[in-house]
Amino acid sequence: MAKALDIVSSIRSEDASIHLLFSVCIPVLIITSANTWRLWNEHWEHKAHEPPLEERVEYSYMNIRTKNYPWGDGDKVGSLVYGEWRALC
After folding, report:
1. DSSP class per residue in 44-89
2. Residue 8 confidence class, pLDDT cut points 50, 70, 90
3. d(Cα 71, Cα 85) in Å, to the nearest integer?
4. How far apart, in Å, are the Cα atoms of 67 and each of 64, 71, 86?
5. C-alpha dihedral, 46 to 47 to 53 to 54, nearest 10°
6. What single DSSP character describes residue 1?
7. b/e map of 33-57 (b: 16 or more CB within 10 Å)?
8. Partners of 69 in the β-ladder
C-alpha cells in the first residue's frame, strides 16, 4: 500500500512541477525577455544622441590610474588577451 501511495504522490509531484513550469516559469521568462528587449532598444536610442567619442570633452578626473593592472597598463585593449601570460599556454 505504501508503494502505491508513493507512486500517486510522485505523479502528483510531476503534475505540479509541469503546471508550475507552464503557469509561472515560462510567462516570467517571456515578460522579462520583453522588458530586457525594450530596455536594450531604449539604451541604444539614447546612445544615438550622444556625440562621437572623438568629440567628447576629456575631463581631468577621467582615466586616472595610480598603478598598473596585474595584466599591464590597461591602455591597450588586448593586453589581457595578448599579454605575457599567453606565452605560458
Report:
1. HHHHHTSPPGGGS---TTTT--SS-BTTB-S-SGGGTTSSGGGGG-
2. low
3. 8
4. 9, 11, 22
5. -60
6. -
7. eeeeeeeeeeeeeeeeeeeeeeeee
8. 72
Residue with grid cell 591597450, as numbered in its chain = 76
Q: What is the mean pLDDT of residues 7-26?
A: 75
Chain centre to alpha carbon of residue 23: 25
Q: Quote the cell numbers at residue 11.
A: 505523479
Rg from Cα positions in the chain: 27
Say what the pLDDT of residue 56 is: 80
Sequence-distant (≥ 6) Cβ neighbours of residue 56 within 8 angstroms: 50
**Residues constituting the chain:** 89
Is the model's pTM score more than 0.90? no
Which pLDDT tens digit goes with each residue over 58-74? 888 877 777 777 766 66
Under 8 Å between Cβ of 73 and 65: yes
Residue 12 is placed in which grid cell? 502528483
